[in-house]
Design a protein that fits this description.
CATH architecture of the largest domain: 3-Layer(aba) Sandwich
Strand content: 15-25%
Strand order of the largest sheet: 6-5-4-9-10
CATH topology of the largest domain: Rossmann fold
Number of domains: 2
Structural class: alpha/beta
Number of strands: 15
Shape: globular
CATH class of the largest domain: Alpha Beta
Helix content: 25-40%
Number of helices: 14
Radius of gyration: 22 Å
Distance between the termini: 7 Å
Largest sheet: 5 strands, parallel
């Protein structure tokens, strides 16, 4: 099986969000699909239901896999974080309001994907260049339902835990809810494979990722030893250190077993660092993501000239990797995590990137000859 190649050149100009046309508005209004008024602009009026779905100790959340409770000719019934749903055995028109990374990881290209405020993981820009966006309305929680209807999906995958939204999506097409992808990225790609009938491909991708982790650790630890590593984000007029329970932690301190600096141990998520805290920041290696906003670039320039910055061991010894593209760290599945491994290798032992990726690719070819 051939998988798409994933690189992250600058994405195309996609400032014009895809909007559903008059046809979709007529469908929604004409059949009373949602029982909602439709604005002239083509965005349905939605009032979020405050009742959320159960998100703990359910299939498709945490370390619990989705459950197949029935299979028949052309369909399967799966239990997931949103409930129990009958889905096509091999869906052909998937709307990826979530799990875009996981779908591409198993060789499936959806007919649409979701965004929030114009943001989409930059590492997926190229493979998604010709895939319509589904805008969100009322903040980041509600997808534009008309845009979903316009793509005529036969399966919708989402992370939305609003019950009303789930019911509305389910009236368009079978809808599956999968959660906790930032920590349980292996489990979620297996779940996606189960739901869409590509379990073998999903297992191969997990084996590929595990092989990459193993090869990366073999290359990294003889060099790093007990030295510490951290990740910071430079934002407009602020710089934030990612903490011990942040989305960075499962990869950096879990899979790659890097040692945490003391300041990382003392914060659970992420928080702004003061110059006084920088005085005690003892990271030996540092990954630094810089937001694209001009104010963030100015903040980064000011940081580079601040006397306390030069006291940080990673800065003093030239062990800092600056990332202009970093969303594969902040909102990613298994493919994004694999790119994070490349970043760490680039920082510590760049000559190992090729051999590490070759070792992982061999495992994938063995699983999917």
């Amino acid at each position: 099986m051939t998988f798409p190649r994933f690189s992250s050149p600058p994405g195309p100009d996609r400032s014009g969000l895809v909007r559903a046309g008059r046809w979709a508005a007529c469908v929604v209004a004409g059949v009373g699909l949602f029982g909602l008024a439709v604005r002239v602009a083509g965005v349905a009026d939605l009032v979020p239901d405050k009742t959320a779905l159960v998100t703990k100790d359910v299939p498709g959340a945490g370390d619990r896999p989705v459950e197949v409770v029935e299979e028949g000719e052309g369909y399967r019934v799966v239990r997931h974080a949103g409930g129990t749903t009958r889905v096509p055995a091999r869906p052909e028109r998937i709307c990826a309001l979530a799990a875009a990374d996981e779908l591409l990881a198993i060789g499936v290209k959806p007919v649409a994907h979701s965004i929030s405020d114009g943001h989409f993981p930059d590492y997926l820009a190229e493979p998604f260049a010709d895939v319509p966006w589904v805008p969100t309305v009322y903040g980041a929680s509600l997808p534009n339902l008309e845009a979903v209807v316009a793509e005529r999906p036969d399966l919708i995958i989402t992370r939305n835990t609003d019950r009303q939204t789930y019911l509305q999506l389910s009236r368009i097409a079978p809808t599956v809810v999968l959660l906790d992808h930032l920590v349980y990225y292996r489990e979620r790609v297996l779940d996606v494979g189960t739901v869409v009938g590509r379990r073998r491909e999903a297992e191969a991708r997990v084996a590929w990722y595990n092989a990459k982790v193993e090869a990366a650790n073999a290359a990294l630890h003889p060099v790093v030893g007990a030295k510490t590593m951290a990740m910071m984000r430079v934002r407009p007029r602020a710089y934030r250190l990612h903490g011990d329970q942040n989305h960075v932690s499962p990869l950096l301190y879990g899979d790659l077993k890097m040692t945490r600096p003391d300041l990382v141990r003392n914060r659970s998520w992420s928080s702004t660092m003061s110059p006084e805290q920088m005085m005690t920041f003892d990271a030996d290696y540092l990954i630094l993501s810089v937001d694209s906003a001009a104010d963030a670039r100015r903040t980064y320039d000011e940081l580079n000239t601040h006397p306390v910055w030069a006291r940080v061991p990673a800065v003093r010894n030239g062990n800092v990797l600056v990332l202009a593209k970093w969303r594969h760290w902040s909102d990613a599945g298994i493919l994004g995590r694999a790119r994070g491994i490349d970043d760490v290798l680039q920082l510590v032992c760049p000559d190992a990137i090729g051999p590490v990726n070759a070792a992982a690719d061999r495992v994938l070819r063995e699983r999917l000859p």
